[in-house]
Automatic annotation (TrEMBL):
A UniProt-annotated Pfam family: PEP-CTERM
Superkingdom, taxonomy of origin: Bacteria
Keyword Glycoprotein: no
Residue span, Ice-binding protein C-terminal domain: 168-191
Family matches, as NCBIfam families: Xrt_dep_XDP1
Keyword Ligase recorded: no
Protein name: PEP-CTERM sorting domain-containing protein
Keywords for the protein's UniProt record, in alphabetical order: Membrane, Transmembrane, Transmembrane helix
Transmembrane segments: 169-187
InterPro entries attached to this UniProt entry: Ice-binding_C, Xrt_dep_XDP1
Length: 195
């Protein structure tokens, strides 16, 4: 599950040269020939994946994506089904084509109940169609997907309230005490100016 070479080209986007594709064309794309190619993205804070834009595709451009709280490959050698099962959410989408943004909120996933709209994760896997990521048998043309990702767009997820970023709301008694202190200071200053 590791790349032989990963490059980012200004004109071609992300190119993955996988170990399994040394004698298969294209051997320079995120594809599902002789295995599944995925790009694992890590962000400092959870993000929502809004869209992707392919800079190139061959034959077909079906993708699978998954959001994770932690690296699904850390300290193990999982199967693709184990990776998918450890996700916050997975989904697969057909015909992402190339040249214009494929906006997930405007599309229906292969299994309509599985989509990534509104889902946030610190780790995201994006790759060629993999049936493990849509919870159903392959009902589309499989194993002919090859793409180069030119860009993705994300949105920083709203951070949940936690003890570290929570702010105390003053109780009514505290506000009254504060107001009494202000009035006391004003009364004292007024008495001083009258002398």
């Amino acid at each position: 599950m590791s790349a032989r070479k990963l490059t980012l080209s200004a004109s071609n986007g992300v190119q993955v040269y996988s170990h399994a594709d040394t004698n298969v064309s294209p051997d320079h794309a995120v594809d599902n020939n002789n295995g599944f190619d995925f790009i694992l993205l890590e962000f400092p804070n959870p993000v929502e994946l809004l869209s992707l834009t392919n800079s190139w595709f061959k034959t077909d451009s079906d993708v699978s994506v998954g959001a994770f709280n932690s690296n699904p490959f850390a300290n193990t050698s999982p199967t693709w089904q184990q990776v998918a099962n450890s996700a916050i959410q997975t989904a697969s989408y057909t015909n992402t084509i190339s040249g214009s943004p494929y906006i997930f909120a405007n599309k229906t996933s292969i299994v309509s109940s599985e989509n990534i709209v509104g889902v946030s994760g610190k780790f995201w896997l994006i790759g060629a169609y993999n049936a493990a990521f849509n919870g159903a048998g392959c009902t589309i043309t499989c194993f002919n997907d090859a793409m180069k990702f030119g860009s993705i767009t994300t949105k920083l997820a709203a951070l949940p309230t936690s003890p570290d970023n929570a702010q105390d709301v003053p109780l009514p008694g505290t506000i009254s005490l504060f107001a009494a202190g202000i009035f006391g200071l004003m009364y004292r200053n007024r008495r001083r100016t009258q002398r």
